[in-house]
Amino acid sequence: MNIGELLRSFPELTVTGVTQGAIYALVALGYTLVYGVLRLINFAHSEVFMVGTFAALFTWGLFGLDSNTERPSIGVALLAILAAIVVAAVTSAAVALLIEVTAYRPLRHRNAPPLAFLITAIGASFVLMEVAGSLTVRRPFGVPALLPSKPLFDIGGWAVTPTQVTTVVVAIAMLVGLDYFVQKTRAGRGIRAVAQDPNTAALMGVNKSRVIALVFILGGLMAGVAAVFNDIKTGSTKFNVGFLLGLKAFSAAVLGGIGNLRGAALGGLLLGLIENYASALFGSNWRDFVAFVALIALLMFRPTGLLGESLGRARA
Amino acid sequence: MSALRERLRISNLPKPARYSLGALGLVFLFLLPNKWFYEYLGIPLGFAYIPLYTTKNDMASVLFICTWIILLSLGLNVVVGYAGLLDLGFFGFFAVGAYVVALLTSPESKLLTEYNWLESPWPWLVAVPIGIALSLLAGVLLGWPTLRLRGDYLAIVTLGFAEMIRIVAKQQDWILNGDRGIPEVGHPPGSVGGEPLFSFDAKPYYWLALCVIILAVFLIRNLVRSRVGRAWVAIREDEDAAELMGVPTFRFKLWAFAIGAAVGGLSGTLWAGQANFVNSTTFSLENSILVLSAVLLGGAGNIAGAILGGFLVIYIPEWLRSVGDVFGLPETVTVGGSTYDISPTSLRFAIFGIVLIVVMIFRPQGLWPNRRRAAEIQHRKKEVAVGE
Amino acid sequence: MRVFGGVAAAVLIAGSAAACKADSEDGGSAACGLKIGVFGALSGDNAGLFVPAKNGVDLAISQYNEKNKDCTVELTTFDSQGSPDKAGGLATSASQDTKIVAMIGPGFSGESEVANAIFDQAKLPAITPSATRPSLSTKGWKIFHRGVGNDLSQGPAAARYIKNVMKAEKVYVINDQTAYGAGLTDEAKKVFGAGMIAGEDKTSEKQTDFAGTVTKVKTSGAQVIFYGGYTAEASLFLKQLRAQGWTGTLVGGDGINDTNMLSVTGQKDVEGTIATCPCAPATNAKGTFVADYKKKFSVDPAVYADVAYDLANIFLEGIKDGKSTREDLNTFLGSYNKAGSASGVTYKWEASGELDPAQVVVWAYEAKGGAWVPKQEIPKS
User: Fold this and answer.
1) Strand partners, C250
2) Which chain C residue's Cα is nearest to A160?
3) Of the ranges B39-53, C133-147, C151-165, which one carries the lowest mean pLDDT score?
4) Which of A226, B88, B358, C51 makes an SS bond possible with A26, Cβ 3.0 to 4.6 Å?
5) Which among A142, A159, A280 has the least Cβ separation from residue C266?
6) Which CATH number characterizes residue A288's domain?
7) Residue A179 pLDDT more than 60?
8) What local confidence, expressed as pLDDT, does residue C13 receive?
9) Residue B7 included in any domain
């Protein structure tokens, strides 16, 4: 226990924790959306994210940027980030949809038991990760430096960098946008209806297949955006980048209450903070241990996560 | 066709035929790791001959891996297949069993060298029951607070448990010695003509594990057919209804968890006895997922299915290593100036992933499902159409 | 319990003739068609660390075959995924194939514990390009050879460089919890002494977010980090340190002495980074290795590729000399004494299988202008 370390660097741990949490939250949304509608842990979502990181890298390649090029001007940098967001989000959404069509839809047509979906999800995850691994010779790829490293402002003596600000701002915008979409639009109402009661929703004229496809696309979009900022934040990507992050994001979704959009956001944020505080308190090697202990302890007291399952009602 | 099928079910055959079939199967399994036997197994395909054994990896060793994975899937099948509890961290119990054996039987274990708890390494045979008991205890300790959680929440808690064990194992300065591991783990006893029976050759271990599997199958089968098994099925199908009918659901769930954990621990003790070296890299999350896919691929809720699944998840990727040689496939391709490795060896997990998807699409209940469970699901299909 | 339904019965058809068996062994001149094995993680998470070594061997063998078209040598790979639990079977399989006369590997220390014991029984000579655990040479294996210095040579050398050459007052010590990384830092810490260490932390493999560690380094005020680990994590860690404005120097072992460290981190961020290497500055010449490697695999050679290339060439030299059995090759290794063309290391082994300590020189390399530039030999005390 190193309380001094925690107190000394509390502001910076908080800032970096929030940034990490924003990325967890975006990926967690993908898990939670699919879970809310289909009651299915989409294990392949981590690879949707992984594909996004490479799509972003590819986009920057088109801009002529690589890890050795000089930092571009702020205008070019923002344009490159914007382009990467679009490309990565679209690519990830396409991959998510592809997984739904090839690995899940046929099973639904055959009325497979829930665990069968888990296995096709694992299968899809294997395929994507191993193919990406072979294509990239399993080596890491550096990401170009984009945003200036000069701090924008500081909180309690800790300099906040433009990267951190952009990540959090974009993540919040995405979260608010998604929340608005699900709560206020017609398509969002369809999602909520199917999540609550698929059969009644179908009777009321909601096209379930379309809602399910939409949910995968939305999750993919979020993962794509997260992928861009993960690239920028960690400075590189690799074929297995999704595995650990997917696991964390899934934990975040459960922490907040799986199936609950705001819960996923809250869970992501909390997990990011817990991890950072834990690595100061106990050393980075205990970071994940503490995160899991916190998760299990929380589930003991709130068995359906912090905010409960609100997208759909908990199905007995 | 279906009438013929019905007549050919093992359970419908006359008793002598059933027994001799079983005996034949056992003889086959015991002969299998011998090279003079397995190298004749294969499929003649006109132009080529496809060997069914793993030409790139020692067949006996592959078979031994199959057996301890089969034991694991038997244990997990009790938890997932019978009691219907989703456990994503089953490998944690395997780790407990393996580490107990390693700590007690290795002369380089920190119990001897640093803590001086032991005077000298214990024999493997003594360490095994302790390993099983501690795994069972771990199962109870994990299950006690968490089994009140439902479905996917339980899944993440079990996953967390396995990760926590791995993180503890990873600490270099702790007792489990992290990535550096514990070498010179003890082997099972026994010698033939002065030479120890259990050393580097995987065959004796395979035979030993086969006997353990047979024993485990009998125990689990009897348990499933008893009151306990009926209670599990009731919990799996409708927990609330079972509780209302007077089934103490929590106690039976804990039972399933503990028994599964003990079998998982047993598998770990066997593996450690053969491995000679135990370190933290073996206990990654991927292995828990592999065992889960074994159970579901084979058919959850059916002992035979779990065995088949456990065999296939190891055998398919290992066999794929050699498939390139058979068909003379190129190892690499060059597209646009870049060379990509497309040998079946490096793509075998991608191929395995496709196999998983295809099997689940065409046989969503698994390859060898439990007939009764399949019927239940058929029945439920009429009540609610999930998804579509 | 259906047994005859479907495919079950059709699967097991006994093969017809013995002629079909995969490895029919006939006598004849054994010197041709020999195989060299490569043993290590070729798929899975750790593959990035060992695939370059495999490629190095691949390159050496294909160059050899180019020159000796009438009597070629074949490469056989054993993909252990780096885990000890897969190593046993593969090692047994390698031992049984009598055409395999030499082995490069195993790649990691853990799997070495399992595999070398089996190779030793089969008298199959093995040289590891990358397993650095010191205790491997004390197990009494006659076939064990190490193509690099072990943790005991590199860790203290790196520490001496930080202490005596860089004259750092404070150093932050980090390892990645692998046997390699922890071995390096454990030995280095003994040289530093407690007063010099500003703090310690651990990372883990596959980690991509180092925010917690970055913060701790920054608040500790240390201007030098000693990192025991590999490029995959070190490059990201350094990049994230720079993004937070840290201006100090990162020092690592040969685990980061590869081109990926330069390209992934980016020239600007990596500038000034020190990587030690138990290899002489002849490395700089490297012959045509880098160009040949890049031509064949379209990527830059990564860590251990050069070592593995040299080691394979030693075996090929022996085979060319007519050493066609495992025993002969093992004896050949015992009396070998030459410098490798790609790595610049002089390969001369002691009876234990360690490189002759007199030959182990540790050099410091500095990342400068997008390349590793040899800086100086690190004094032995």
Assistant:
1) C225
2) C244
3) B39-53
4) A226
5) A142
6) 1.10.3470
7) yes
8) 40
9) no
Q: What integer is the mean pLDDT of C281-307?
A: 76
C190, C156 Cβ separation under 8 angstroms: yes
Residues of B in contact with A315 (CB under 8 A): none
Residue C226 has what DSSP assignment? E
Q: What CATH fold (topology level) applies to the domain C34-149+284-347?
A: Rossmann fold (3.40.50)
Residues of chain B with pLDDT under 50: 384-388
Measured between alpha carbons, how far is residue B129 from residues B100, B132, B262, B268 in Å?
10, 5, 10, 12
| pLDDT for residue A311 | 52
pLDDT digits (tens, 9 = 90+) for A137-152: 777 888 998 888 788 8
**For residue C339, what are the β-bridge partners?**
C346
Distance, in Å, from the CA atom of A286 to the CA atom of A21, rounded to the nearest integer, reads 18
How many distinct structural domains can be found in chain A? 1
pLDDT at B388: 40
- Nearest by CB to residue B51, choosing from C22, C77, C178, is C22
Averaged pLDDT for residues A105-125: 88
- The Cα–Cα gap between B134 and B119 comes to 21
Closest approach of A189 to chain C, Cα-based (Å): 37
User: What letters, b where the CB count within 10 A reaches 16 and e where it falls short, cover B352-384?
Assistant: bbbbbbebbbebbbbbbbbeebbebbeeeeeee
Question: Is the alpha carbon torsion for B9, B13, B17, B19 positive or negative?
Answer: positive
Whether chain B has a CB inside 8 Å of the CB on C78: the answer is: yes
The pLDDT of residue B380 is: 62
Domain range for residue B282?
Answer: 58-299
Q: Which tokens is A85 given? A: 């967001």
Distance CA B179, CA C204 (A): 11
The shortest CB-CB distance from C88 to any of B39, B42, B202 is to B202
CB-based contact C88:B198 (threshold 8 Å): no
Mean pLDDT, residues C195-207 taken together = 88
Contact residues, B window 328-357, toward C, CB-based 8 Å cutoff: 337-339, 345-346, 348-349
Look at residue C23 in the predicted model and tell me its pLDDT.
Answer: 40
Q: Is the pLDDT confidence value at A202 over 90?
A: no
Instruction: For A294, name the nearest residue in chain B, comparing CA atoms only.
Output: B160
CA A199 to chain centre: 29
| Pairwise CA distance, residues B170 & B163, whole Å | 10
Q: How many domains does chain B have?
A: 1
Residues whose CB falls within 8 Å of the CB of residue B2, separated by 6 or more in sequence, listed in order: none
Subunits in contact with chain C (3 or more CB pairs closer than 8 Å): A, B
Going from N- to C-terminal start, the domains of chain C cover 34-149+284-347, 152-277+362-377
Show which of residues 68-97 on chain C sit within 8 Å of chain A, judged by CB atoms. none
Q: Do B360 and A130 touch (CB under 8 A)?
A: no
Note whether B65 and B319 are within 8 A (CB): no
* ipTM of the modeled complex: 0.87
With cut-offs at 50, 70 and 90, classify the pLDDT of residue C50: confident
Which is nearest to A10 in space by CA: A280, A298, A245? A280
Question: Distance from A70 to chain C by nearest Cα, in Å?
Answer: 8
Backbone phi, then psi, for A315, in 5-degree steps?
-90, 125
Of residues C381, C376, C334, C349, the one with CA closest to residue C150: C349
Specify the pLDDT at position B74: 95
For the C152-277+362-377 domain, the top CATH level (class) is alpha beta
Residue B360 lies in a domain: no
Contact B202 C15 (CB under 8 A): no
Neighbouring residues of C286: CB distance < 8 A, sequence distance ≥ 6: C306, C341, C342, C344
Beta bridge partners of C274: C251, C366
- Report how far apart, in Å, the C-alpha atoms of C345 and of each of C20, C146, C353 are: 45, 12, 15
Whole-structure pTM value: 0.87
